[in-house]
């Protein structure tokens, strides 16, 4: 993979070329395809900024003195390279069930600390393991876009409400089948991570890769604050005012909207509020923000290209079928009650390579997938979970979600892709089996 896999930006360009050719093959005029690509290119600016803020606020929170102290303490537990890689993988998986954004940054910082302490640890392997929550179980946890959308009446389009109605979390995330699938995937992930760890003689450490270890430094309050501006920068007064304001708003919103109110904007505000509080002073907070911003470069550049792919996938000139509509017809016609769980998991994973956004892809996929599930008598809540389980698979081979941590590691996608590809090859049959076998328990 290091030899042949292109840079993540090249992957985005290749994916653009692929969907362009696919649209031409469906008979769409070239001019219309170009128009739809341009129409979609800037359509995810809000999401792009949300993702950039996830990186910044997640880093600020994880890099605050109390949380960073916890990370450094956790990094002292592993004693061997294999323990180091599995330890990071475990925390990546467990934290991703709470929130995937925090998982990325927390696990990334933990990987750097562990790699620096445990001699002979392959930095590529431990860095790849910090990403496994996004490639494993994140969508089966509390940040599942599909499950939260289906549980929120106001978020559902009217046509989808007519098909499924509201599906509460007690029928999706909080069922024993989901818990079992999470446990199986975590176990498989840890076993594979243990065996894909290179032995010290073959390892490429941080030193071998020319990556310097730089512990986070926090700003100290000067002994002599001579001006009002300096006093405000190093005083917690404004920090406490902001935290009180944001916490009041968050509590009011959660009281009225419940868990479904935890969208990306809310998560970013929580990270920002607690990050600022734990840094205590604006000066320390701003220093952490400055360290985090370089990691957003890949997101800011590449996400618009994936938005362009999204535009080609979902738009079509009058009288023509879009790519997503054509795939939908093939999907509904080609499934039976027995084959539906297997085929919907394969379809969701394949579509995830082209549209790497859980919530946006679900809104495209849900109407015809849920209609087919209803016709075939498949449990609607489990159909959402099939989507969730399969949603993570393409993340292991599509560098889209690796971008936030690549900046933290100062590495390229090709450096990690060999390990995530191995994990994908083991996850694929397990995911397909779980989606099909557990569907029979309803």
The domain count comes to 1
Rg over CA atoms, rounded to whole Å, is 23 Å
Strand content: under 5%
Structural class: mainly alpha
What is the helix/strand order?
Answer: HHHHHHHHHHHHHHHHHHHHH
Helix content: 55-70%
Q: On the 0-100 scale, what is the average pLDDT?
A: 86
Number of helices: 21
End-to-end CA span:
41 Å
> Main beta sheet, described?
none
Descriptive notes:
There is one protein chain. The protein is mainly α and 442 residues long. The chain has one domain (8-213, 282-439). The chain is 67% helix and 0% strand. It has 21 helices and no strands. Helix 1 packs parallel to helix 15 and helix 17 (340-354) packs antiparallel against helix 18 (358-376).
Short description:
The protein is mainly alpha-helical and 442 residues long.
SSE arrangement:
Blueprint: H1 8-25, H2 30-41, H3 45-62, H4 65-74, H5 81-96, H6 100-117, H7 123-129, H8 145-150, H9 158-164, H10 176-196, H11 228-233, H12 237-257, H13 264-279, H14 282-292, H15 297-314, H16 323-333, H17 340-354, H18 358-376, H19 380-391, H20 403-409, H21 413-439
Considering the chains and any ligands shown, give keywords for the structure.
442 residues, mainly alpha, globular
């Amino acid at each position: 993979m290091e030899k042949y896999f292109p840079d993540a930006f090249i992957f985005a360009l290749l994916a653009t070329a692929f969907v362009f050719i696919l649209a031409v093959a469906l008979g769409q005029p070239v001019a219309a395809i170009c128009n739809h690509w341009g129409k979609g290119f800037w359509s995810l600016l809000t999401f792009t900024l949300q993702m950039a803020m996830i990186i910044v606020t997640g880093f600020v929170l994880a890099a605050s003195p109390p949380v960073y102290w916890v990370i450094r303490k956790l990094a002292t537990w592993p004693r061997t390279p294999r323990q180091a890689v599995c330890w990071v993988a475990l925390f990546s998986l467990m934290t991703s069930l709470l929130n995937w954004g925090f998982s990325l940054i927390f696990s990334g910082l933990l990987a750097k600390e562990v790699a620096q302490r445990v001699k002979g640890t392959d930095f590529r392997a431990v860095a790849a393991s910090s990403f496994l929550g996004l490639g494993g179980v994140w969508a089966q946890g509390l940040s599942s876009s599909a499950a939260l959308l289906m549980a929120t009446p106001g978020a559902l389009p009217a046509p989808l409400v007519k098909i499924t109605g509201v599906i509460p979390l007690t029928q999706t995330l909080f069922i024993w089948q989901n818990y079992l699938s999470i446990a199986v995937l975590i176990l498989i992930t840890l076993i594979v991570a243990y065996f894909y760890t290179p032995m010290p003689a073959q390892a490429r450490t941080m030193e071998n890769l020319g990556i310097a270890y730089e512990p986070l430094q926090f700003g100290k309050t000067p002994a002599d604050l001579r001006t009002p501006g300096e006093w405000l920068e190093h005083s917690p007064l404004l920090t406490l005012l902001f935290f009180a304001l944001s916490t009041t708003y968050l509590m009011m919103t959660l009281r009225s909207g419940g868990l479904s109110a935890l969208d990306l904007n809310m998560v970013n505000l929580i990270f920002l509020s607690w990050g600022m509080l734990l840094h205590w002073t604006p000066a320390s907070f701003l220093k952490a923000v400055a360290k985090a911003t370089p990691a957003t470069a890949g997101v800011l550049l590449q996400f618009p290209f994936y938005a362009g792919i999204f535009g080609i996938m979902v738009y079509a000139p009058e009288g023509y079928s879009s790519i997503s509509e054509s795939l939908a017809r093939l999907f509904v016609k080609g499934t039976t009650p027995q084959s539906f769980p297997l085929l919907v998991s394969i379809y969701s994973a394949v579509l995830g390579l082209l549209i790497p956004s859980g919530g946006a892809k679900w809104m495209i996929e849900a109407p015809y997938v849920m209609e087919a599930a209803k016709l075939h008598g498949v449990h609607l809540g489990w159909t959402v979970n099939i989507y969730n389980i399969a949603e993570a698979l393409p993340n292991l081979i599509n560098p889209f979600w690796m971008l936030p941590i690549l900046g933290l590691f100062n590495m390229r996608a090709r450096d990690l892709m060999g390990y995530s590809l191995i994990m994908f090859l083991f996850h694929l049959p397990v995911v397909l089996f779980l989606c099909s076998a557990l569907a029979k328990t309803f």
